[in-house]
Amino acid sequence: MVMLKGSDKIANVSADGKLRRKTAPPAGASQPFHIDPEMKELIESGVAVLVATGDAERRPHVTYGWGPRVRDDGTTVDVFLDRERSAETLRNAKANAHIAMTVAHPVSYRSAQFKGCFIDAGDPTDEDEAWVRRHREAFVVSTSLVGDPPGVVSGFWMDDVVRVTFRVERAYNQTPGPDAGKPL
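Structure (tokenized):
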């Protein structure tokens, strides 16, 4: 990663030698938030996932997310979006780097929001697609336990997904109750 002189852009050279440009992290960005094993277990379970970005005028755009996965560094997350629904989300993330992901377990209501800096997006690998299928199966089980018919729930997603990777900088408890909104 290289900062271009006189610019707020970061350039990344991929393995194939192509130059990719990304917006620099938001001013005053903190150290990455480290996701502990307990939180990783929640993120990678059968949770409902929403991914949000905002445009230059701070108008939000929200879409479903699938297969959230914490990378080994504990600060970076991959989440998969339905490609057909993700154009505006990706456009916003690429333009200003701000992204948020909220996960909520349908049975326990345990919920958390992760805000951070968009890193990149790309096509899923075969391994990624298997990961998304596993998450969707777990999500159907979770929602079935609260009475949602599996056929209805599986209608929420599309087959073609895009991988979005971001670095978590802040996290908040979103579980309903007196601690909702407090930093984790």
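The longest strand covers residues 161-173. DSSP finds four helices and nine strands in the chain.
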